[in-house]
User: Fold this.
Amino acid sequence: MDVCRDATEDESKVPRILHLVAAVTDEVYSFLGPALRELSYMGRPQSIVLLDDEKARKHIHHLQRHAEVVLVEKNRNKYVQYKDFYLLCCRELLRSRPTTLHFHGIVPCVIGSLALRRCGLQAKVLYSPHGSRSLSTLRLAGWLTMALARPLIRPAQSSAIATFALQSKAFESWGSSHLIESPVHDAFLNVPRAESAHPLVLSGGTYASIQAIEILSQIAVLLSAEELSIGFKWLGHMDKHMVRCFDAAGVRIVDIERDSTHAAELAAGWLYVAPWRTRGYPLFLIQAMAVGLPSVVMDTPQHRQVIEHGTTGFLCATEDEMVRAIALLIDDAGLRARMGDAARDATRARFGSLKFRSRLMNSYSSDLFGE
Assistant:
């Protein structure tokens, strides 16, 4: 069956946005969720084609409040899965006739560009990389995006939206690119700080290597003297085969479902620790800073983008440096308070919802495309 020819016609003249997403990870949702909400408030009808994933159901439920969601069934056979993705993209393109397409990731970019060509439509194209592993990968993704988009539409109608400062470097050669950093939820900025009675070191996330987990476990063991009464807690999901390391080190695991619950857990902490190399946007670190926690993190390009060493936290090159920084913050309540306040102020100024809304409206405006 020829999907494009067989699709039902939609005569609606209301400008519509179509988002294509492969996986709704926490990082993707941190941008896509607020973006859908703001665009919906602006009166822009939207739809999303994305892969159905049990781990992302909590995010999908929220996305459906502001957009029509078209789910692609997951399949162990990747060829079948992405073919289904492509066919549903074609159907949605001809059904909704979007004036703007936003590709979230390199796979949706490839599939969406092919579908756009197949269906013979004209549309503005926006591209966001979301969490590519390295700048070299980002540059390749940016080049590939433009190579695919140029035969389809006028070059002036394509634009990149970087969601983290490091990503911007990959799009320096683009005619149009914008930095719209994902906002932090108000639940983190507004929750009152309430340190626990005993020292509590927090960490967490949805991605951590075995090496990072081992380092955190080692730090917990080194600081586990009974007289210190220091507790360690991991906020977020943890694979079952990695739980054993934390159990042995006395690190509690709390699986988080809601932003409000996450914010309340962070508010009881004394400081936040990230002893790993972040793959992309350091969402969990930014959320901890928004609550007002000083941070002790591995010195990486991603962490250097958000931590001001000595002011909002400590950037450490070794495990020993991290242990000393944690001990310093535990011993000095005044330092914790000053760093925590500075972290919250910096996060509010940079990742607040007002700045996000303004930049998003600008990137989606018709002026961006010279109309």
